[in-house]
Amino acid sequence: MLAKLENAGLRPVADADRSTWLRRVSFDLAGRVRPGDPRYPGPGSPTRG
């Protein structure tokens, strides 16, 4: 897999920090972000477009 990435001129990203890893795994397993994550405001939030 790494060889295919390198042949395409791509390289893997650096390891994620703990909170980023947890957010990604939670999304992959549950199909949604963790409740209460301030980076993803819920419905009715004044910051949601």
Summarize the structure.
The protein has helices at residues 2-7, 18-30.
Model description:
The chain is built from two helices and no strands. The protein is mostly helical and 49 residues long. The mean pLDDT is 78.
List its salient traits.
single chain, 49 residues, mainly alpha, 39% helix
Write the layout of secondary structure elements.
Layout: H1 2-7, H2 18-30
What is the tally of helical segments? 2
Order of helices and strands: HH
Poorly predicted segments: none
Q: Judging from the principal axes of the Cα atoms, what is the shape? A: elongated
Distance between the termini: 38 Å
In total, how many beta strands? 0
Estimate the strand proportion: under 5%
Residue-averaged pLDDT: 78
